[in-house]
Amino acid sequence: MSSGSKTSKLDFVHARAALFDLYGDHLRSRGGHASVAALVRLMKPLDIAAPAVRTAVSRMVRQGWLEPVRLPQGPGYGVTPKCLRRLDEAALRIYRAGTLSWNTRWHLIVFPPVKERPRRERIRATLTFLGYAALSESTWIGPRSSVELDNLLECEGVRADRFDAALEGDPRELVARAWDLHAIGEAYEQWHAEADTLITTLPAQAPPDQVFATRSKLVHGWRNFLFRDPGLPPELLPAGWPGEKARAFFEQEAARLLPAAAAFVDRELH
């Protein structure tokens, strides 16, 4: 979308990711549940059809993120405690719903060998989401501990040694080895360009469902950075870090579009 003939990555949102965004962005503060019919209606502006919604919900139930509930409007699904922890962790980083401080120390996790490949991949994906980077096959490092770590270890049935460590040496060298800041910075610049186009093509008097869809795509694109950007402290980032400019744009536009998007959600929930 940033170059006319190309289609923006922000145009595509998978059903499961869209549901995570919906529960975290809107439903978490409205009791954390919704009827199946409401979920289908809320996904329609994102061009996600009812069968895809139901398939994604079933998958999220199997994975322990959602659980069936009976609501006055009919059968529905609510968030589990595991899902609440994930949504709270994400909100802290998406909206800076708290202070992400750094005390100049690092959080190290050392795992024993994990033989099963699917379990290894789940652990790797979750640790990356939580802001950790692999220094070796068994050792991961992050700028701070995560509240989700205990849950990860318990769910995967693994033990790990954890350390609060002080680095002897230049932390910038460690950061350069653990994270590809150049690639992350370029991703922020690309997102910012596509997000700007997404916003500028939204009509001034757009209907609430269109505003909801636009804001949902904006949040989804931004949420993807949780899997790439560990939230490093400013003193360890390059000068003129593109992530800060992108964040300012996201926070401004997400807040501006929220009232109309929230009104649409409230209408469709009842």
Structural topology:
Blueprint: H1 15-25, E1 33-35, H2 36-43, H3 50-62, E2 66-71, E3 74-79, H4 81-94, E4 105-110, H5 117-129, E5 133-134, E6 139-142, H6 149-156, E7 161-166, H7 171-178, H8 181-200, H9 208-223, H10 242-269
Antiparallel strand pairs: 1-3, 2-3, 4-6, 4-7, 5-6
Helix pairs in contact: 1-4, 1-9, 2-10, 5-6, 8-9, 8-10, 9-10
For this entry, give a set of tags.
disordered N terminus; four-stranded antiparallel beta sheet; Alpha-Beta Plaits; alpha+beta; 270 residues; three-stranded antiparallel beta sheet; globular; 10 helices
Global mean pLDDT? 89
Largest sheet geometry: 4 strands, antiparallel
Unreliable residue runs: 1-7
> What does the overall shape look like?
globular
Strand content: 5-15%
Number of strands: 7
* N- and C-termini, Cα separation: 35 Å
The SSE order reads: HEHHEEHEHEEHEHHHH
Tally the helices: what do you get?
10
Strands of the biggest beta sheet: in what spatial order? 5-6-4-7
What is the radius of gyration?
20 Å
Helix content: 40-55%
Helix/strand/pairing category: alpha+beta
Task: Describe the 3D structure.
- Strands 5-6-4-7 form a four-stranded antiparallel beta sheet, covered by helices on one side. Strands 1-3-2 form a three-stranded antiparallel beta sheet.
- The protein is globular.
- The protein has ten helices and seven strands.
- Among the domains are: 79 residues, Alpha-Beta Plaits, CATH 3.30.70; 81 residues, no CATH class.
- The two termini are 35 Å apart.
- The N terminus is likely disordered.
- With 270 residues, the protein is α+β, with helices and mostly antiparallel strands.
- Helix 2 packs across helix 10.
- Helices cover 51% and strands 12% of the residues.
